[in-house]
UniProtKB/TrEMBL annotation:
Keyword set, alphabetical order: Repeat, TPR repeat
Lineage, highest ranks first: Eukaryota, Metazoa, Ecdysozoa, Arthropoda, Chelicerata
Gene: ttc36
The UniProt record lists the keyword Transmembrane: no
The organism of origin for this protein: Trichonephila inaurata madagascariensis
Protein name: Tetratricopeptide repeat protein 36
Secretion signal, residue range per the UniProt entry: none
Length: 151
C-alpha cells in the first residue's frame, strides 16, 4: 500500500486545486504499480503549485519506491523548508527522512528527525525513538522477562 498526503493549511486557488487533483491521480498510478508515471504526474502537480510542500513529500515517496534516495532526500528537504518545519507535511517528511537515515545507518540524524516528528505529534516517530533507545530496549526486555515469569 502506498501512502501519500494531501492536507495542509493552504489557500485553495485554482492551481492548488488542480495540483491536488493531479496528486490523487498520481497516487492511483503508484498504487497500480506505475511509479514512473506517478512521478511524471507529481512533476506536473509541483509545477502547478511549487510552494505546496505536500507535492514534494508525495514525490519523495515515489522516488523512494523507485530507489532514487538522493532525489527523495532532496524533495523531503524541500518539504521541510517550504512548510517551515511545521504541520502535517513536515511531520511526514521528518518521518520519511528518518527512515531513510536509519537504512543508511545514520542513527543520530534519524533520531533528530524522529524527535522533530514526535514534537509535531507523530505517534510513529515516538515509537521509533523508543525502539532506537538502547536503555528503553533493555528495560522492555527485562519487563517481558518478568511478565513471562509471572504467567
Amino acid at each position: 500500500m502506498v501512502i501519500f498526503i494531501f492536507t495542509d493549511e493552504e489557500e485553495l486557488t485554482e492551481s492548488v486545486i488542480e495540483a491536488k487533483r493531479l496528486e490523487i491521480e498520481a497516487v492511483k498510478k503508484a498504487e497500480a504499480g506505475n511509479v514512473d508515471e506517478a512521478i511524471q504526474i507529481l512533476n506536473q502537480s509541483i509545477q502547478m503549485a511549487p510552494r505546496r510542500p505536500a507535492g514534494y513529500n508525495n514525490r519523495a515517496q515515489a522516488y523512494r519506491l523507485k530507489g532514487n534516495i538522493s532525489a527523495a532526500i532532496e524533495d523531503l528537504n524541500n518539504t521541510i523548508n517550504l512548510s517551515g518545519g511545521k504541520g502535517r507535511s513536515a511531520c511526514l517528511a521528518f518521518c520519511q527522512r528518518a527512515l531513510i537515515y536509519r537504512i543508511q545507518n545514520k542513527q543520530q540524524e534519524a533520531v533528530a528527525d524522529f524527535e522533530k516528528a514526535a514534537a509535531l505529534g507523530s505517534a510513529f516517530a515516538r515509537s521509533q525513538l523508543v525502539l532506537m533507545n538502547p536503555y528503553a530496549a533493555l528495560c522492555n526486555q527485562m519487563l517481558r522477562k518478568v511478565i513471562s515469569q509471572y504467567r
